[in-house]
Amino acid sequence: MLFANAENRLTGARQIPARNLGANTVQRLIDNCAAEYDQVRRLIDRAGMDLVQDRNGNKIAGVELRIPAVRVPVKLDIGPLMSSLLPDSPGWYRISSGIAHSAAWVLHDAVAGTCGPDLALTPDLMEVAAAAESAISASALIIERHGTYYGYDPEPRVRQSRQRRAMLDVLMREQAISQMTNPAPLIRAGS
Prior knowledge:
Elements: H1 2-14, H2 18-21, H3 23-46, E1 49-53, E2 60-65, E3 70-73, H4 78-85, H5 92-100, H6 104-110, E4 111-112, E5 120-121, H7 125-149, H8 155-181
Helix pairs in contact: 1-3, 5-7, 7-8
């Protein structure tokens, strides 16, 4: 995952249009991300591992331990795993993941104002609530698994998590209704 993160940051930096931040700033970002990428590659090499390409030889797909030869993917798809572990939070993990990884589709919703001093980043309440829902569900799962493993009854604590989720669900429904009945004004592209 360390390699995939460094690779994603470098790819993202290379995709930033120079008009957004200025050519010098974008180039510094690219240089910093490239240095991090190289540092991660050297770290993997010093650890006695090799980066392995995919079947087509197009991109790095895995890390292989030299002795004994064990290969693992460099990128894990956590979404399906989270969907199976947190079935009460369908889709919420993806939204909270988008927040954590600064995905463009999430950041687009966070921009308020037009430009200059009026430009501001504001959290979307539904996205913050989605992150909270995922955290509450994950903590309940951890409490349940650990309690059961160590011979304790996790139900009272898990019940508290369900109650917290229920309260948050009500607030999220109210927010969704408010957003549907009072849509934000459309900001035209290029304005």
